[in-house]
Design goal:
three-stranded parallel sheet, 5 strands, globular, 7% strand, 14 helices, Rossmann fold, 2 domains, Tyrosyl-Transfer RNA Synthetase, mainly alpha
């Protein structure tokens, strides 16, 4: 039987937590690349609200941010007609499959996760079990859709390795059930760094608002934050690990404009940082303005957004439940009577 081109497409799964307002790190490191992937792959783009509650959320803010993240997906250029876009908690199979995979995961594996070690130091005795277990939920997210490729930043590779280990472990215990996913790491813009501490990844959870630029920041705020961005005393625009602040601003400019680091170095040779910073700020403003306008328009049309996430959940639910039923059958559960 001949397989159609549509069926042959590899599957991609990715998602962003609505636990805080999205930064340009999310946009340049993830969303901009997702837009490029949508014509080539069968893509599932999820708003991972279940992951967000590993840290206590204000309910009204969680609801607002969930719709805002979905709106940003669409405004950034992710086409609801080409991709499956949905809210994680609307597909119960994620929670069910996560419990099943939990029973095949070792506590030692989870306690070695870098993010758990870092965050558990912060929360100490009050660290939630969800923070320990959330990589298993992430594995369920990925494996339910027989995902071939997962766009991940360098800091998420450890979680994907766990996903691969769990898939392999389950396949060996029973019979082939899951595709073993591979990482998809884009060559450029995969990691946008903190504007104040450029050796750290840009994060919406930073205590210093000058260290990140939010997707919905107004132009004057963006200009101020870039003007305050840490550089150095060398005064040379050079793409070097010895100048992490300058390198980070060059990465931002490169991903937005398509200029290579070599072209940026040549353009600003002998000019210092003033004009360079102005141009970086203007590039960000120009890139975000149409997205911000579209987000505001989408948030004013709740019915349209509801249609998108309802249709996406319908398709996701069908695919995910098929995998879940396969898991349950192999484990030995009695099928639900119809």
């Amino acid at each position: 039987m001949e397989v159609s081109g549509e069926q042959k497409k590899k599957v991609i799964f990715s998602g962003i937590q609505p636990s805080g307002d999205l930064t340009i790190g999310n946009y340049l490191g993830a969303l901009k690349n997702w837009v490029k992937l949508q014509n080539e792959y069968d893509c599932y783009f999820c708003v991972v609200d279940l992951h967000a509650i590993t840290v206590r959320q204000e309910p009204k803010d969680l609801r607002r941010r969930t719709l805002e993240v979905l709106s940003i997906y669409i405004a950034a250029g992710i086409d609801p007609e080409k991709n499956t876009m949905f809210i994680q908690s609307h597909v119960p199979a994620h929670s069910e499959a996560s419990w099943l995979l939990n029973c095949y995961t070792y506590v030692g594996e989870l306690s070695r996760m870098t993010q758990f070690k870092d965050k558990s130091k912060k929360y100490e005795e009050s660290v939630a079990a969800g923070l320990l277990n959330y990589p298993v939920l992430m594995a369920a997210d990925i494996l339910l859709y027989q995902t071939d490729l997962v766009p991940v930043g360098v800091d998420q590779k450890q979680h994907l390795e766990l996903t691969r280990d769990l898939a392999t472990r389950f396949n060996h215990a029973y019979s082939p059930t899951f595709v073993i996913p591979e990482p998809y790491i884009p060559k450029a813009g995969a990691k946008i760094m903190d504007l104040q501490e450029p050796t750290k990844k840009m994060s919406k959870s930073s205590d210093n608002p000058n260290s990140f630029i939010l997707m919905m920041d107004p132009p004057e705020v963006i200009r101020k934050k870039i003007a305050r961005a840490v550089t150095d005393s060398l005064g040379v625009v050079r793409y070097s690990d010895e100048q992490p602040g300058v390198k980070n601003l060059m990465t931002i400019l490169s991903v937005i404009t398509g200029m290579t680091p070599e072209e940026i170095e040549a353009k600003y040779e002998g000019q210092g940082y003033a004009q360079f910073k102005l141009d970086v700020a203007e590039a960000i403003v120009k890139e975000l303005e149409p997205i911000q306008a579209k987000v505001k328009e989408l948030l004013d049309d709740k019915t349209y957004l509801e249609n998108i996430y309802k249709a996406g959940a319908g398709k996701a639910n069908y695919v995910a439940t098929k995998t879940l039923r396969k898991m349950q059958k192999k484990i030995g559960f009695i099928p639900v009577a119809k």
